Amino acid sequence: MKLITVSGPPSTGKTSVIIKTIEHLSQKDTKVGVIKFDCLSTNDDILYKKKKIPIQVGISGGLCPDHFFVSNIEECFEWGLKEELDILISESAGLCNRCSPYLRGSLAVCIIDNLMGIHTPKKIGPMLRYADIVVITKGDIVSQAEREIFAYRVKEVNSKAKILFINGITGQGTLHLADLFMKEGERENLKDSKLRFTMPAALCSYCLGEMTVGKDYQIGNIKNINL
């Protein structure tokens, strides 16, 4: 089974792009399922079910979504094998711009949009920097100059990534993405797989539920501002 990770900040059009891409893959008799990782809630599973796409949802709640992902992805992979999927897509929203949801040996896709501002690529971190493919959406809303500047800023952060401009509403550009998915290699399991980059740093007293402000209540991984 192929494992593909699609990540990106909230509301960039990840689900729309994935659904349009799966429509192309389905025409090639390719069975695709999705694992949706989110923080508090999601209704995206309704959209997948309407398209009869196998879907499972994981809500991290008070945990870091990346830590939740990495501690559950093996079980998700096994679910995909039981469903006899050809491709399993892991969809994850980057909520802190320090997210690192990619595994070595599996295709990594980051979806961002042109409305985020031309300086945003430098603020996203490993989620963009370690992606194999960067999909830029909502290009129809901005000028050609803005699209070119935004793409240039992406290249400054990740010079090796393939950049695709995709319209999540019409699906324009998703056929190319589907072809790239089909070229991805298969995996038997995720045993001893490694992340491409370290997770956001933890563990401090506030991670464990502490709510009182003050140095007397701060333990663990603490970083002080240099004033």
Concise summary:
The chain is an alpha/beta fold. The chain has eight helices and seven strands.
What would you report as the Rg, rounded to the nearest angstrom? 18 Å
Q: Which structural class should the secondary elements be placed in?
A: alpha/beta
Order of helices and strands: EHEHEHHEEHHEHEH
Share of helix, binned: 25-40%
Q: What does the overall shape look like?
A: globular
Task: Count helical runs.
Answer: 8
| Strand arrangement in the largest pleated sheet | 3-2-4-1-5-6-7
Number-wise, the strands total 7
Low-confidence stretches: none
- Separation of the first and last Cα atoms: 51 Å
Could you give the topology of this structure?
Elements: E1 2-8, H1 14-26, E2 32-38, H2 44-50, E3 55-59, H3 65-70, H4 73-82, E4 87-93, E5 107-113, H5 121-124, H6 126-129, E6 133-137, H7 144-157, E7 162-165, H8 174-183
Parallel strand pairs: 1-4, 1-5, 2-3, 2-4, 5-6, 6-7
Helix pairs in contact: 1-8
Describe the fold and architecture.
The protein has 227 residues and is an alpha/beta fold. It is 30% helix and 19% strand. Helix 7 (144-157) links the parallel strand 6 (133-137) and strand 7. The longest helix is centred in the middle third of the chain and has 14 residues, at 144-157.
